Batch of 4 targets.
Target 1
Amino acid sequence: MIGAIIILGALGLLYGLGLAVASKKFHVEIDPKIEAITEALPSANCGACGYPGCAAYAEAIVMHNEELNKCAPGGAAVVKEIAAIMGKEAVAADKKVAVIKCQSGGKNNTIFRYEYQGVTTCKAAILINNGPNLCSWGCLGYNDCASACKFDAISIDENGMRIIDKEKCTGCVACAKACPRNLIEIVSAKKRVHILCSSHDKGAESRKVCGNKTACIGCSMCVKKCPKAAIEMKDNLAVLNYDLCIMCGICADVCPTGAIFDPLKEIRAKKRAEAKLKAEAAAKAAEEK
Amino acid sequence: MGLKTFPGGVHSHDNKGYSRNAAIETMPLPPKVYVHLSQHIGAPAKPVVKVGEEVLTGQLIAEPGGFVSIPMHAPITGKVSRIDSFAHPAGTTGTVIEITGNGEDNWVELTDDQNYENLPADEMKKRIAGAGICGMGGAGFPTHVKLSPPADKPIDTVILNGVECEPYLTADYRVILEQTDDVIKGLKLLMKIVGAKQGIIGIEANKPDCIKKMRQALAKEKNIRVDALKLKYPQGAEKQLIYACTKRKVPNKGGLPMAVGVVVQNVGTAVAVYEAIRYQKPLIERVITVSGKIVKNPKNLKARIGTLYSELLEYCGGTTEDVYKVISGGPMMGFAISTLDTPMTKGSSGLLLFNKKEAEKDREYTCLRCGLCVEVCPMNIAPSLIVSGVRYNDWEQAEKYGVMDCMKCGSCAYICPAQIKLIQWIDIGKLEVGKRMRNRQQSAKA
């Protein structure tokens, strides 16, 4: 009994000493800044900065002079914190959000070519006859984007449509990478007018195959009416250059199918109607005079 | 004596009774054919005809797009009416040359070369390549490429694949039974081309009449034998067939049969090779099985390449019930297609139709870790671990457990009690891991 206690005690002491010596001798100097920045980062490890995780990004900032505003989930607050740690000045990057460029795709507003019974992911569905959707460009609706999102920003409404929560979305690109049809674009959160169709089919075809008839039919009305020449026709599809767009909403007004989304469309229409009424009244008054 | 076979595999119902006794019927000429430019593995063929051009049966309409490629020939006489995108039996779309027939069947001139057996090997290969022959078992690898191994890989054995282990299919069975002599002539030519000393014809034990007939025909041949193989799926897979017949193991990780001195060809291909070398006849027709419980008259049809499946079905009297699922090829490795307006290709061995009760699938359940998939896997890899790797984007794990060695025979998915669609998961893994491997190779080069 006593022998055992002595032997174990001695062993414990020996190993303890060994560890103590090793920790002194093999001590690795870590820049405290790296630890501080890692601490400041949101630890989502989402990869939006282009590094495998928050710690790697922190290391890159300290060791390789990486830019300070690459953390999309952190936003302005984190940039400020990192700037304080590094003793540098930095401007927060524009907040970016994901936009799904398809208005179909839910189980209630998609036309199916066949009944799909395979593995329920978009990546798998696209392998069988290029997906069950009649439209060969549109959203498949098996939620690869939602399962890739680490911020719970993509939800599904009662029609099976994917809704992006702009508050939660950090623009980390995970969903865009997961989408096998490349429907998701990351754009500045300030931009509100979007062309929500990705079909390169010819007009008649895309109109026929679209589940809720909101496909771009390539009529070029928006291209002609855009005051800033921000819209271009690329292979039967209108493509918006967000850098030139001033969000005037004219394109959404002239679009015959509703493929262009403008949240202020109704308000603008109302305002225009009021202005028209006013002008008419003014003209009438002028006539009467 | 036990029958020869390989380790692993599953025992499935062979369901060949529907069409087994239907002798090969020649299908009447279709009004239109749709010839795909990509019916094989390798570069797609390049069209050499223009819309509006008149073509004769057997005329060259597309030339090979490279060495690993084959030319295409007009299956009927008529006018090229369209070159456009069209449904492909592999469940994708591809470019087709559409020919509208004029009801006649005027062939380009065929010669009968009496001296065909004594031609030099290079000339024989040239004729095979010129006839546009690719493997007719399903994968469609260009035959002349398979017959051109590098000089340091001598071939001593040619195996003819008459196993037809896929359930339902009886096309090869009928070919062996009805064209026995042509098959043997084809095999002899193949042996001559690669300089092989022995020829083996592998036939599954559920075709005793084929084995008997073949053995009788070969009674005087000393260096060709017929191997009766155990009824098991996938007995007709290339590597499994080689093992069963010769006990030689083709290495995993991309090993080819030539590494063990063997070339395997389908029996249908052997017939096409014989016809190509003797008559210089291009491959424009093949035997295809149209079968299924709901098909009114299941048949083995000799049809022109590019005939629509809908026309084949119509010729068989249509179906007795509503069609729920259509498979191009065999039920284990074939492709589900979404429209019957899909043309047959040189690799189309079957058209199978199923009703809802036969084909409806339950949902996937959680893996039970029972290990049945590992037990039946003929490639000796671990399907369940590959699938869990793919499911959670752990591509290293998928690669480590052999996702690239999988030949997608479907034994694991057939046996899985949790009804996990293993092959579809593995398909995703093959795409992703393949991409990663190519990237790695490129960065290693750079």
Note: The first helix of chain B runs from residue 121 to 130.
Target 2
Amino acid sequence: MYKDKIIQRIQKNKHSLRPLPENPPKMEDKIDLSAKFCENLKIVGADVFRIDDESLVSPFIDLHFPNAVDFSDPETWKEYSSTDPIDKFNKLNTVILRGQFGVAENGAVWLDDTFFSQRIVPFIAQHLVIKLSKKNLVGGMVEAYRKINLTKTGFGVFISGPSKTADIEQVLVFGAHGPLKHTVLLIN
Amino acid sequence: MEMNVNYKIGLFIPCYIDQFYPQVGIATLELLVKLGLNVDYPLKQTCCGQPLANSGCEADARSIYLNFVNNFREFDYVVSPSGSCVYHVREHYNILEQTEEVTRIRQNTYELCEFIVDILKVEDLKISFPHKVGIHHSCHGLRGLKLGASSELVTTRYSKVHRLLEKADKIELITLEREDECCGFGGTFSIFEPDISVKMGTERILDHERNGAEVITATDMSCLMHLEGIARRNKNKVKFNHIAEILNQSRL
Amino acid sequence: MMNHAAKAGKFLADLKRADWHDQTLWIMRKKRDKAVSCVPEWEELRDKASQIKEHVLSNLDAYLLQFEVEAVKNGAQVHWAFDSESFNQKVYSIINGYQAQKVVKSKSMLTEECGLNPYLEDKGIEVVDTDLGERIIQLRGEPPSHMVVPAIHLKKEEIGELFHSKLGTEKGLADAQKLTSAARQHLRKKFLSAEVAITGVNFSVAETGTVVVCTNEGNADMGVQIAPVQIHCMGIEKILPRVEDLGIFIQMLARNATGQPITTYTSHYQKPKPGGAMHIIIVDNGRSEHLGNSKYRDSLKCIRCGACLNTCPVYRRSGGHSYNYVISGPVGSILSPIYSINKYKDLPFASSLCGSCTNVCPVKINIHQQLYSWRQEIFEKRLIPTSKRYGFKFAGKILASSRYYNFFGKNIRWALKHLPRKVLYHRINIWGRCRELPPAPDKTFNQWYQENYKRN
């Protein structure tokens, strides 16, 4: 009922068609994407560790995040299913996820539920650790959106740094509602 | 200078300069004559109509606009020591019927500094001004006439006013904390929102003073009238000179 | 209702606080400048963003219909609301359909515009605003003063007092970190027990039926990913044609709003979560009518970044509550008269027309020109006091004739020169309250020219 009324009003009032500009792919600047990515991660309040090889990741995690729950391991999903009570997830301290790709321009990492099904995990934990391959970096957001196929996901998110707020006198505080800490393991 | 000496330049002097700051008009006229121009000042000119139009009654300003057009129809260029008046003519005289004459006048009305830089293509006026000077970038000139690149824009920085002043001998141009914040005059805004208007003006003066300005200059005497009014009330030491007075090396 | 000038006067009476407010927002403007200067093609992006939005508005019906088809295919339920009343009713009926009573809500200026919270609360629904700034003002019972940083007008001591009274924190606590931590714990309990999560919509995509929400706190996701029911509230103008268009807008939004390269979370809600329900409400509330007004239609491009507020020297020195409208500052002053030109007739005059707002707008809305146009309309509709109207008409006649102009000019200069200071600076002289009047020379330029000027 309202739909028809709204659509009719729009059709009556809209102006003549304006062109839609195209977004031609930008020539990627020959910059060191991983250096820029790391620089921006620091700006947004994240920690970043460069790991030389995939084989060194597990030992690194065991050493630095011994109690982390690794959600990049499909076995973990069986232990934490989406039908489990939320309190179980609320007890999560450090969680590990694999990021699909990173954006050098702003230190953001894309994660979507083609790789994990418990959508609350990146938000509810106290510390989020993301494993990311260095080769999966793009320069900017225009390139980033070309990599994503939203129709194949149910939910996806760019995460850039820890949860933050400056709502109290513009003082920057980490950990407003989401994780207080955000770490990226950038793997060669 | 490539200007054809046969070009007729019409001098438009804003109403408040005519009435309260004639020295600025005199400086403008003398400067243009020094630059070898054939300048005339139509005697029946009054005002550009901006005070009414900015207050919402541009319909009642029509007859003022027509008086402007009548006075300046004979000229090749109209030059004025006022960014806001020139902006008003170029932007808001669109409510008049756009005859060939109206169109021509609108396209050829210039603020003094942009006329010198863009039309006369002169930047070094061979002047001396041994003072610390703060430039107040009047908004209509800056953002409306693009006399400079305002600080919000991501673009090459430039300022025609700066370009004319930096060549003056012994001048020191100061840097402000807020490069191009509005002074708060805004025409009738200064009366209808007086508290904010005065606060804005007070802070502009303080910014200049904190950064060492001895003289504040601008393309618009309206801004300076407002700032000087505050400065005299508060007994600030800084002095005010319209850009025309500095460029003309008037006895200040 | 006190007009903007009167409220601004009151705001400025507390000079220390007013200076602090101005400086805080100026810093946000400088952060914005730094962030946008890192994007050398920024001005081209503004052009593009503006063109995309103009295209959308010229094809809005098709995109909304396409969006609905895609969203429904994704498993979302799509609803349409014509005005604030039908919107509030729809939200309530969805909530009531699930027999829910606990709602968490992330930032949505649309829900503020429609007065959703009081409507739901009246019906016994608990609505908790989860953005920290919004929660603070909700607890205080006041409207937001800025669309991005709603509690920017408050000092941490005041927030400390508020939290002590409402959340039981220690008296005198004024540390931002500790106060935020207290809010985190308090709101986490609300998230964990919420039955419905309501969000706004920063952008939606017609091509895929996607809803995009940008937050720094993660409160939208803490709500949506826990509560079984999610409701996204979208103004009709928020739609974008393609996923690739997000590339431009996401690059611009946070840089312009807060000076960050991107918000912490840019969440793309595509399908309901397993076992959950997803609702999208498409809201008109006057926008389709606004679309037909060619002078002011451009303000529908607004992406609510708040940059025009931060740059506005008037907003910074008067505060958001001086505007009496849910959206304050320059964009609020051109949107509000569309809803009620009589109620908001003072707002287009709350500006010196400096044009800074137009220059920071990421979608190139001609804000200062719209302010000028509104002034003409307000005058034409005789909403200015009669005395002022006649005063200006009279001035129009004087200034059109050199004879009258010179006559009045002479008398004004005589008065300036000869009247005693007590008379000249009577309080009726608004200019003279804090400023000296201009000097009164003996001769005008016109007279000097006639007497002195000899052609070369």
Note: Chain A touches chain C through 74 residues (CB under 8 Å).
Target 3
Amino acid sequence: MKVVSRRGHNPRRIHVLAFAALMTLLSGLGGCGGGSQAPDFVFLVGAEPETIDPATVSGQPGGRVDRNIFEGLAFNDPTDLHATPGMARSWDVSADGLVYTFHLRDAVWSDGTPVTAADFVYAWKRVLEPATASKYANMLYPIAGAEAYNRGDLTDPAGLGFRAEDDHTLVVTLHSPCPYFLQLCCFYTLLPVPRHVVEAYGDAWIKPEHIVSNGPFVLKEWILSRHVLLAKNPRYWDAEHVALNLVEGLTGDNINANFNLYMSGVLDWADASAVPLFVVPELRERPDFHVAPYFNTYFYRFNVTRPPFDDVRVRKAFYLAMDPSDITEYVLRGGQVPAHSLVPPGLPGYHEAHLPGRNVEEARRLLAEAGYPGGKGFPHVELFFNTSESHKQIAEVIQQQWKNALGVQVELVNQEWKVFLATTEAVDYWISRGSWIGDYLDPNTFLDMWQSTNGNNRTGFADPGYDALVDRAARTLDPAKRMDLLHQAEDWVLNKEMIILPVYTYVVQNLYDERDFTGLTPNLLNLINLKSVVPLRGHRGRPRNTDLRPEAAAARTPAAPGSG
Amino acid sequence: MITFLVRRLLSTIPLLLVILFASFVFMRSAPGGPFDAERALPPQIEANLEAKYHLDEPVEKQFLRYLDGLLHGDLGPSLKYQARSVNEIIGQALPVSLVLGATALAFALLVGIPAGVVGALHHNRTEDYLTMSVSLLGICVPNFVLGPILIIVFSFAVGWFPAGGWGSWNQLILPALTLGAIRAAYIARLSRAGMLEVIHQDFIRTARAKGLRERIVIGKHALRVAILPVITYLGPATASVLVGSVVVERIFSIPGLGSFFVNSALNRDYTMAMGTVLLYSGLLIFLNLMVDVLYAVLDPRVELA
């Protein structure tokens, strides 16, 4: 008798199901690189890059990849960031500072096609096309016709101030002198793109299977939210000086997970996005924690159009009553410096403005003069910041300092990031948190933002005199004179008008072991130049010391390089 | 059965439309937009971007455009990850979440059901107290606590498993344990309760009276009915394992869909948010349907009509 149950098990079906499940499992795990080569160097890219198309990249993660797979006319020297000849072997600048002539070297794309001046013309025009919608197109605005073309006012590309005189000569005409133009030439928006590949594949040209680049590395693999794999480009003009053969860049924006990956020896290099606030005191004892100056300032904006902060005396009182060293010493503890200027110190050739230190007496006097003696009658005001544990802690400390020194109560309001941005863009606040990292190594990047038409102003401050001063600085050719004008501009927004209140200067906080690699010395923009990274003998043979206790750090004996 | 399935599936279409419409309205009414950043865009560039993604059109037209794309299986481009379409992101991230979720659920079932059965069969004895205490602990410890503890013990102290990342089987163990622990605990409690109820019923007494071996009585007759509450729980549990994996994905730096689900809303990545909402609500509806079907398969008393 054979009874087939309706609910009976069909062994074959189960096998099929099990097989399907196994396949899903394997596809989800992805190529786990069983037979593939291990990378020589693993670094933290940061958050998943939004794109790596140089025309549309607008953040550090994408920039970190692009600066290593493409090379512009020049690139930033990894130590002092000066513009070093890249695709251009040399350049001439006309006496009036308006015409730059770049002489290109013999270089090829990774598929063997020559890199020509026409590639730059194509790439830059592409950035400026309105349809490309490049977020950083304004990096090209110093060039004649660029802004009008990007706005759509100029439709004839012949009006653009750059042309290829021949394959090796690129002539660029600016509409007015731009002393930091060579710094812009190092920026990722100005990188060349391979016309033949972009036109063949459209938006998909940046996929690993299509992309062709001209830098020290080529993109071999790009897996969403996991990693990019960069392989040495054997056709790069200076390939003999590239020591790394395969580099893995991990993408991840969870600071604790990143820290775990560094401490468990997966990452060889990571920046502050792998440094949780709470481990900083322990990390500072370690030799593989590197703190260095950063071109990045944390500040508060005042809404200068809304009482009581429309009165400069109130703004000054708020500054003088504050003591940022409490924040750097007790909240952040990572080597950050209390800020007395907006432009971070350390910029060659520039003398930054200087604000006086804390002065509670003077602060009280100014507040009384403004009509609020001892904080009496001071209206309801709020300090806005985007939701984050450290912004909250900083705001609480400053709130307390204001209360103690001035007798004023400032309410704290945290907002989700995009809501916060909408609030500040509409200048619908009293005080709001801000921070700024320089795009290029020049004080202008911190100062033109306070011009009345600049979208980053967001304070309501509008002064034709200030606008004219910054414009005048841009037109000034003599470097010393120009820096002096910029210094006056900085002094204007700080000592004269106090439209913002600098809190602290960020520092680079990088994790790497210098016994394993050279060429990782931090620079002011925290750029990582993989071309200059050289692994030392026996690198990565040594397990990371994961004991974070201070006594463990003290007991540690440094091993000789290469002893792994 | 077939008519039941067809009817249920058809009824999901208006439901999904309502969900889509509601999430479209909510997304668009949230302050801020996809292109807002600390660094302001020149107005012209912002306008260029909006034109590129048709965000300058009237909203009703945008919604219709979205529905039209959907009919062609196109969820649109991601507004944040400009290089990728929503289809592509889901295609890459969903399998990761599915693997993690399936492993976690398998772990939960393999641990939870036997633990519950053992507890029920040794009712009010040491085994019972032990399994129930452990499961209570499992329910009480949230995954954002359990995950780091597992990392400290298994990655840093004994070094058996990596602290994070994705791509090999040993990177799957700790996150699956973290994600599955609370479900294993629930399943243990549910199957214990179910088993306790069943073993005192007449048909079990009959089975025993027939002289069946205890293993068959429990394993074949009792268990099938006893795990019905577990099945009910599995529908929402599967959905929550997939959606709720966001915390675990972040702790272990896993490239799953959970982070995209949350971040797309935070980033005002309209298309990405709509795509994930659609996917997750579809999953939830489908899994609930599957629970109903399984009921009919497992319990002869249930009939689908």
Note: Chain A touches chain B through 63 residues (CB under 8 Å).
Target 4
Amino acid sequence: MLLTRASIKCSILVETMNKQEYIRNIIKYIQNDRMREESLRELSDHFEDRKQYYLNAGFEEEVAEEKTIACMGDAELIGTRIGKVHGKRLYVPLLLIEIVLGLTVCFFALILGALLWSEVLYEQTVLSECALLVFLFLFAYIGLRYRYKSILIIACIPLSLFLTFRVVLGWGHSYENALLVSGTVWETVYLVLGKFKMIYEIASRWRFVETSWWLQVLSVLFYAWIGFCVIAGMTFMVREDREKCSLRQKKMLKLIKRSVLALGACVLVSGLAFCAVYYTAAAAARESVLETYSGSVIYAKGINQNQPFNEMEEAFISDDTKSLTYYVEDISIESKDTIQLYGAGKDGEPVRRIEKKQFDNNIAYYTVIYEVNVKTTKDYMFFSNKGLKESFSQDKWLKVRKGEKYLIAFEEYEEYPLNFVEFTIQ
Amino acid sequence: MRYSKELVKGSTHLLVLAVLEKEDLYGYRICREIALRSQNELSMGEGTLYPIVHALEKEGYVESYWRECDGRNRKYYHITRKGLRRLKSLKEERIAFNKSIDKVLNFG
């Protein structure tokens, strides 16, 4: 008989044990949290059934309980056997995999990142990498507690998120980002796909290569959805195991869980494919521009038509530099001495220069705006050669354009400006 | 008649899957069913039953669910298609094995 050894061993313990103690003695050998809880309920039910059998046979309650314990057998034996099936809570090899993955993330984020990224990007991305590390270990923890087979999915998703989040954050700085990942993924993608001009053309047609707010929003939503899928998938996984569900409910939960995970995987793959196309096209565009203009002086135009000054400025692309750089001469102000233009700029200069950095086809464009500070104690109007610009009562930084004449007029009389000053930004 | 432990050990999966073939059962009922069908010649203790059903569940041969029965929530086991296929192959294997044993015993 299967039970013989267990029955003999356990009969010794019967006198000193009640149901709670007996069941507790069994489950203490089960190291898997979820199974411990479930086994507790299952074995308690079993205990009650068997006890009921003895009660029906006419035994006293106390005797029935003792007989049940004797019949069920050695608690340690049952516990260790069940525990052996479900294994330990932590799987050491899988934990090692997680540690390796974590160290990989650390390497890219903190070492490689520090070498390659600009300061601003470094700050932004380090924060994101830290958040991703939390994600990584959170998912790993959940995975280690539950299904063995989930680990692979769980281990892959944070790494994918690591790459894609970096892309999202670097969207507005795609050139730097492309440089950053050139040694890892996108370089390979570019090498494989970048040779096909068609990809660039398609991407250009759909304006994938242009940076725009809606693309950024879309991309954030894109990856937020991935995050949702992962969390939802995990939730279903946990619910399916933990809750008391009917068979039909359980099957449905399993189906939903698989669908959500499959959907998440599809979105993830398509997201990565999207990024691959984007960067391939971007890299192709950059290559194209650099090939055309490398080593020569060109005239580039600010891309934002709403900027006040988008005249042609001299720009230069060097052989070794992969960005477009403006060289703007210092400017000075010439004015008739009727009004004083104060130096209220950062370093006391009367005129200040603002550089706006923008990206088009992954080429950095610097648009330069000049502002002049006008300080008076009187109300005045500001004229440009295009007519009335604005009316002010206090000192103000005014946007001016290089080489144009401006007029500042004071309204000493209501309709006719009598006092005025004309100046030119040289 | 009592059977040796070694003899029964190789048949535990077959026994559990066989009693689950017709209907879903919970742990205690599985024990009872085995005893009933074998006319009390076979019995399976908790130390054997639960590790087996849990292992079968882990391998996908059975799946469990909770259902209320007689005012109590019980964990029922249901044989899956994979489990049915496994049962079929175990049965075939057992029949072939018995035949082989018979051949040896009745030789000559």
Note: The two ends of chain B are 27 Å apart (CA to CA).
